[in-house]
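Why Short palate, lung and nasal epithelium carcinoma-associated protein 2A? Reviewers of the renewal asked for a concrete example.
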Amino acid sequence: MVQLWKLVLLCGLLAGTSESLLDIRGNDVLRRLISGLERGLGTFDSTIEIIFQNLKTELESRCLNDVVEETQQTENSLEGLISRIFQVVNRLTGVRIRNVQVPDITFESTSENSADVSIPITADVTVSLPLLGEIVKLDLNVDLQTSVSIETDAETGDSRVVVGECPNNPESISLTVLHRRPGLLNDVVDFGVNLVRQLVSSVVQHELCPRIRELLESLDTECIKKLIGEPQVTTQQEI
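Here is what the prediction returned.
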């Protein structure tokens, strides 16, 4: 038997009086997501931790080389990790995020011992509602940004890896509507877009950024130096 609240939601959507009902639905979805994030998404799928540990091992093995070059393997491993995370998000919220791609991971040297790190992520998103099914399909672009540096203790001379903040900037999340269910009110489509923005923002803050921080902090200073590479220097001609 169809649940009563689903029938009420459908009638509200058709009658154009759905704003408060959608808010209730959105709040329920976000509540379930936040609850899952607080527990840790790895508790729902142990494969997440396995992939993450394999990614750390793969990076550490690359650091044994004299020069650490970017490889497709690292990007594929990161794609696998993020895909698995979003699979759990789908189970918790019903929002499907798939076809995750990490086009490039860049370390832009800002000094001899520091660099800005950029990790762009793209994916396809589908938002569904009870009875209505799919209401909107979106193209997702997220740019994770942080920094990494090597700091030396003035007294002991020991060096350590320091990872900067990974800001949860709404401007770093871009959503483009690829397809919308015909006949739906704009409010319903806007609900889907805003829900995804809040959902992705929460995942970035509570899951992706902490993973990137832990990944970088697990590397030793020599490895970070290799990833940073040589700073760009502007030479001036002597007169």
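Strands lie at 96-101, 106-111, 114-129, 133-152, 159-163, 173-180. This is the kind of structural detail the renewal will allow us to pursue systematically.
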